[in-house]
TrEMBL record:
Transmembrane segments: none annotated. This is Efflux RND transporter periplasmic adaptor subunit. One of its GO terms (biological process) is copper ion export. The keyword Coiled coil applies. It comes from Pontibacter mangrovi. NCBIfam families: RND_mfp. Residues 130-184 form a coiled coil. Residues 321-379 form the Multidrug resistance protein MdtA-like C-terminal permuted SH3 domain.
């Protein structure tokens, strides 16, 4: 029993050693100044910076707005303002000296020279050109000898002056026939001499517009009727909007629509398109029908074939929050934002949802309330300041 204290002390020592590390643990770090999430989208300016950025604000208001239906559309040339240019006859294409090369996207003016077409003779003439040239050479030599002989006989008094003139006329006709044969030879060999220049057809632009497609190029031999290029007029242009037949009754076909490009952001203007009085074209089993609008495209913002977004007016009206379209800024992912003034020189970026765009006004369905003040002038500059690309 004298060994019992040793066995009692051993568990006590083990328990004391196991408790020592827990006593040495430090308390967790405490954040003294936590950053609120709302502060991440807040920009605070100095009065001088606010003035330099040209910041102006407006109050968000509620007003009665026309309902809209967002649809995709495509731009087309106005009927009668598109042309497909073809080769009038077989020939070799060449450019007018000093003229740019016709290429897709280049604008042209009515009457501008596009190509010079060197006309090639018919296939039958080309096959017989060698025989024709030899025949014309023999005729020229014969006529020349006859004219020389008549001149000599006239000096000897053996013929009259009239006989000499007739011989010289035959010589002139033979020379002309021989030159024509030589010209055909030059055309056959692709020549560009004086004879070839006498058989050139100038192809000009029939209207003001833009080149949509190019089918043939310089030095290319084209057949009669071969397509060369397509030209479409730019002002005005039509917008074709395919609409589901079930939505057709909701649309007010007598009111203008709002058209914008797919890349339109911020201050970029929204174009007003007037409805075109055309009959609704669709079959009895068709699910879609096409309606058309006309745009005065004086600034050449739209091109035939371009895809656009169209806000079609509906027959109903409702109250909505309205801000100037210039107040909307877009992030890299297409997200829509506005800057709300929360205090003097303090602006908070707030996500919104744009329901529709009416002329230069944006109807907001979510994100702002009546009475808020949002930035219009300087919104893009404020966005750049927040992300390091502003003034």
């Amino acid at each position: 029993m004298r060994y019992t204290p040793q066995f009692i002390l051993l568990p006590c020592l083990l328990f004391a050693c196991s408790k020592a590390p827990e006593a040495e643990k430090k308390a967790a770090a405490a954040v003294s100044s936590p950053v609120k999430e709302s502060a991440l989208t807040t920009v605070t300016l100095t009065p001088e910076a606010e003035k330099n950025l040209g910041i102006r604000t407006v109050t968000v208001g509620s007003q009665e707005v026309t309902g809209t239906l967002e649809m995709g559309g495509d731009v087309q040339a106005e009927p009668g303002q598109a042309a497909s240019i073809t080769a009038p006859m077989k020939g070799i294409l060449a450019l007018q000296k000093g003229s740019p090369i016709p290429q897709t996207g280049r604008t042209v003016k009515k009457g501008e020279v596009l190509y010079r077409l060197t006309i090639l003779p018919a296939e039958g003439d080309l096959a017989n050109n060698n025989q024709e040239l030899e025949m014309r050479r023999v005729q020229l030599e014969t006529a020349r000898n006859k004219a020389n002989r008549m001149r000599q006989l006239l000096k000897d008094g053996a013929v009259s002056e009239r006989a000499k003139q007739e011989a010289e006329a035959e010589l002139a006709m033979a020379q002309k026939a021989y030159q024509d044969a030589v010209g055909k030879r030059e055309l056959l060999q692709g020549g560009t001499g004086q004879s070839a220049n006498q058989s050139v057809f100038v192809i000009k632009a029939p209207l003001d517009g833009v080149i949509q497609r190019v089918y043939a190029g310089q030095s290319q031999t084209v057949a009669a009727g071969a397509p060369l290029l397509d030209i479409a007029g730019l002002n005005p242009v039509w917008v074709r909007v395919p609409v589901y037949m079930g939505d057709l009754e909701r649309i007010n076909l007598n009111q203008p629509a709002q058209v914008r490009t797919l890349a339109a952001t911020g201050r970029q203007a929204v174009s007003e398109a007037m409805p075109v009085s055309t009959p609704v074209a669709s079959g009895s089993t068709a699910a879609l029908t096409d309606i058309f609008y006309e745009i005065k495209n004086t600034d050449k913002s739209f091109y035939p074939g371009q895809k656009v977004m169209v806000s079609l007016p509906t027959k109903g009206k409702a109250d909505g929050m309205v801000v100037p379209y210039a107040a909307i800024v877009y992030d890299i992912n297409g997200g829509e934002w506005v800057y709300v003034q929360t205090g003097p020189q303090v602006y908070q970026r707030q996500r919104v949802q744009v329901q529709s765009i009416l002329r230069q006004q944006a109807v907001i369905s979510k994100g702002v309330e009546a009475g808020m003040r949002v930035v219009t002038d300087g919104a893009a500059e404020l966005f750049g300041t927040e992300f390091g690309g502003g003034k």
